[in-house]
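INFO batch 0412 | record 1 of 1 | parsing
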Amino acid sequence: MTSKFVDTPIPALVAEVEKWQLRFFAKAVGETNPIYFDEAAARAAGHPSILAPPTYAVTLSLCEADPYARYRSLGINWCRMLHAQQGFEYFAPIHAGDRIRFESRIVDFIQRRQGRLKFLIEETEAWNQHQVLTTRFRKTIVIRDPEAEQ
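INFO prediction complete | emitting tokens
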């Protein structure tokens, strides 16, 4: 079952990729390859600057004042949300100094158990300053609504 949420416009977000963020993220995910930390190592490997680890784009996409505002604007109680699944497609690398534009949309909304469980599927594309698609990720959010009709 789809709903009015599908294809609801979500304002685009633009974020700068900074070296310290990449180093911090790489350390947090246990990365040890120097191309994620050291400018000289990244350049020696053919990159223009420090490389972003593969899942970094989803973290950067949350760099907005209130990442839950989009859900509240749809009438969704974010306190009842659970991030259930995430999938990634990679097209081009992200580097320190890039400017990434995130374009998101809700691609599906499914209700189960008479509306007590709702599944919101959101897809985001990350484009760099050269209009090159770098990453596409899709997340599934489960919304529990115990007040829905039984």
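INFO post-check: Residues 35 and 45 are 7 Å apart (CA to CA).
INFO record closed
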